[in-house]
Specification:
This protein has six helices and four strands. It is mainly alpha-helical. The strands form two sheets. A two-stranded parallel ribbon has the order 1-4. Strands 2-3 form a two-stranded antiparallel ribbon. The N and C termini lie far apart (about 50 Å).
Length: about 160
């Protein structure tokens, strides 16, 4: 199994193609690839490609129908802020219940709300482009902030 993240990030070239995607399409269509250097065909068996892509915008291109026809598509809606608050609040609340004083426990809602607010603002203002492709923010980033909060040791206040 091969997982390809952000499959629609390669830039579209002058003729409308995306060479990395064309290589993946070749693999999917012909069940193999050419060896670099000597150009000998190599069959690849029992391999599945799983790919994910965000909606086209900010440096992400549409993927071609010739490529997407080889996949079963699942579209996940964007989580609402309320859903995110429930998910991350339950994680942080469980951790804070392990010996933190009430003053620290009472900061749980503010920590979750501010983290999600900053995440939403960053997603709006720092969209990825071909020149700034590293501007990719997702729920893993929120999770890292919450984990960072959970890594602190209980203190007496």
């Amino acid at each position: 199994m091969v997982f390809v993240d952000d499959v629609n990030m390669p830039s579209v070239e002058e003729y409308g193609a995306q060479p990395p995607i064309e290589l993946l399409r070749l693999f999917l269509d012909k069940k193999g690839l050419y060896e670099r250097g000597d150009w000998v065909w190599k069959d690849v068996v029992e391999t599945t490609i799983i790919a994910c892509a965000a909606p086209p915008s900010g440096g992400r291109a549409d993927i071609t129908r010739r490529f997407s026809r080889r996949f079963n598509m699942f579209c996940l809606p964007k989580s609402s802020p309320e859903t995110l608050k429930i998910i991350f609040s339950s994680i942080l609340k469980g951790f804070l219940g392990t010996g933190f004083p009430d003053k620290v426990k009472n900061l749980e809602e503010a920590a979750i709300n501010s983290t999600i607010d900053v995440f939403n603002k960053i997603q709006e203002d720092l969209r990825p482009t071909p020149a700034k492709f590293h501007y990719l923010f997702n729920l893993r980033d929120v999770s890292k902030v919450i984990q960072g909060l959970c890594m602190t040791k209980p203190v007496s206040i």
